[in-house]
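Example record used in the benchmark description.
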Amino acid sequence: MRFKRIMLEKFGLKYCTGCRTWMEGGLVSLAKCRECENERYRNIYRNTKLGQLKRAATKARKRNITPLPAKIQKLLLEMFDGLCAYCGINEADTFDHIVPVSLGGKTIPHNVVPARFSCNSSKRDRDVYEWMSKKRFALREELENELIMGCI
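Model output (structure tokens):
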């Protein structure tokens, strides 16, 4: 077996550990062919927290939204005890612009709050007071303070 490997390598072939085949030397780098390496990166991008952050950054860049720094995200989550700023019941898993970007809102600390995905998507690009009255949510004290400090 070792002799076979040495002979194949002498003829310029390399072994891809992903698809388990011998290929031309130029097609295999770091024991993986380009297709296997690309598949590995697609899985990382699709199935990990790092991939989720990269997708969010790409989406924000396409919409011309400046990203919210990690320190500010952590501070906002602490201010709302990790809960959704709107319902206050479930853990926040996204951030929402109080004044939507489509209506001229900017990504500044007083215009962004932690939100549950379902609250964030149901609010869409509506005014926070209008949306909360339709949902029959009471305005949380922390959110009210954010609105007052941001002079919205």
